Amino acid sequence: MREPHRSEPHGARGRAPAARGLKIRGLQVRYGEFVVVQDVSLTVAPGEIVALLGPNGAGKTTTLRAVHGIIPPVDGEITYEGRALHGMPTHERVALGLGLVPEGRELFPGMTVEENLELGHVPGRGPALADSLADVYRLFPLLRERRRQQAGTLSGGEQQMLAIGRALMAAPTLLMLDEPSLGLAPRIVDLLYDTLRLLGERGLALLIVEQYVHEALALAARGYVLESGRIVLHGPSAQLREHPNLQQTYLSV
Amino acid sequence: MSVRRALPAVPLLLLAAGPWILPRDLVTALLFTFLLITLASNYDLLGGFLGLYNLGQASFFGLGAYVTFLLLLRVPLLAALGPAGSTVAALAGGAAAAISAVLLAYPLLRLRGAYFAVGTFALLLLLRLTVDNLPQLTGGSHGLYVSAQHYLSLRAAYLLTLSLAAASLLLNALLASSRLGMAMTAVRENELAAAAAGVDRFRVQQVAFVLGATPTGLAGAVFGLHSGYIDVSVVLGIERSLFPVIAAMIGGSGLVWGPVVGAVTLRAIDVALKNYMQLPVPAPAIYGGILVVMSLTMPKGILAGLTRAPQAAARSGSPAPPRPARPRTR
């Protein structure tokens, strides 16, 4: 079903392949008078892994929230699989195949691990509840062990796994991850990225927001660098990695 | 498990025998307690699960009562049917409460926190004003009467209000373990995460609003048919709206049995105050005082206060090893 993505010559025929995947054009988002996202245009093709990099406050989280319908943009256009998302409530975007693993996990700490997962399941979308649960537990065996435990008692790494698992329960076709490595030990980050690689190999498209570029660029095919609400750099990961002074100039890590 | 589940049925059956074995005064007192339990647990469906404080719960009580009465007074066919007509009218009263909740959800659920509380209270005041100012339809301040053939006997009203109270408790208990209840808790705990997980906040809250309005509407209908007379101060009273809130608060909000404990406590105090004591101050002042003392001593209610206390004692019995003080370094 999934056809390999071919990059189109720039500015070629308007319609056909352009409709697939996520397209953001000229996105602008404000909090009151404060413009957080000035002008962001980016694409994620079906099955593609893309990194969105940038320093604190560059507008990465805001971009993801606008895509997920949590913040309304003031200008610009977001389409997914050819459908304009403007004004569409978040739960409908989830039903369309968009998944978000929010910054800081945002779990329901008072509920058990399994309840958190069940909540992520959208009846009528993707596999049945039991099958979805089994699949998440296969991916994260640790969550199965902890399934009766309250989510608030998990370690940071386990919480991140649960947040990803909860998003996967809705059978997304594009998973957006907001700083999945935040606050995790390097060993756990490696583990997490192994899982993300596996998800990518299954054909799931990923849009990964990170402040720490190394892991993200190792996994992603392409990357965008966001600064002060604008895309200042984009290209294939290999090219970005070799960019002179990428870290010092744009990411200030 | 099934035995445990069936246990509440025993006191329920005993209570159902009430009208045949208890003195009439006590039966009436219990009837009013069941009404309060119904309204309090319906209130707490939103207050406890969703953190939405509906100060206008009596709106649905009044709507149920007025629609029932108006149908019996204006539709000759229903009036002619006698008790069957009353039943249809009462069910229509409940349906009117449900339908108005569906519609009222659109404006009211745009409001959050204190604004929702104020909005629901304004709705009650609006209904009171409307009924007062349409005397041709609603009888205005004179109220409405139905003919004696539609009266509900004390026994019937007792059994119906008992059923409504039990159904309301069952509804809350079932919700607590259902997917909808989980979604409600999720919306209350973390709205952003709930949205990210694909939960439709509005729909979840709207369904809860309707579920919390329907038994209250039916209770209004039963109450009206039992007393044979309704007016604004009785079915749309401010106290009618605030007592459920107080009952849920002092009993234990968010707990299935909390509103029951609160309602029984409140009714017991009410009966004691009115029947056996010469009041030096108006009753509302006493309730205000109780509320202040309760929120200072047991902010989570009697039930939570009672169930938490032994756990806390057990925990303090075997104290956790003290954490080594971490030296402050820079």
Structural class by SSE content of chain B: mainly alpha
Strand proportion of chain B: under 5%
Low-confidence sequence ranges of chain B: 310-330
The largest β sheet of chain A comes out as: 6 strands, mixed
As a whole number of angstroms, the C-alpha radius of gyration of chain A is: 18 Å
Shape of chain B: globular
CATH architecture of the largest domain in chain A: 3-Layer(aba) Sandwich
What is the overall pLDDT average of chain B?
Answer: 86
End-to-end separation of chain A: 41 Å
In total, the number of domains of chain A comes to: 2
Number of helices of chain A: 10
Please sum up the structure shown.
Chain A has 253 residues and is of the alpha/beta class. Chain A is built from ten helices and ten strands.
Q: What can you tell me about this protein's structure?
A:
The complex is a heterodimer of chains A (253) and B (330). Chain A is of the alpha/beta class and 253 residues long. Chain A contains ten helices and ten strands. In chain A, the strands form two sheets. Chain A has a six-stranded mixed β-sheet, sandwiched between helices. In chain A, strands 2-1-4-5 form a four-stranded antiparallel β-sheet, covered by helices on one side. Chain B has one domain. Chain B is built from 18 helices and two strands. Chain B has helices spanning 2-6, 9-16, 18-21, 24-50, 57-74, 76-80, 83-108, 113-132, 135-138, 154-176, 179-189, 191-196, 201-227, 232-235, 238-251, 258-276, 283-297, 301-317; strands spanning 144-145, 229-230. In chain B, helix 5 packs across helix 7 (83-108) and helix 11 (179-189) packs across helix 13 (201-227). Chain B is globular and about 55 Å long. Residues 310-330 of chain B have low confidence and may be disordered.
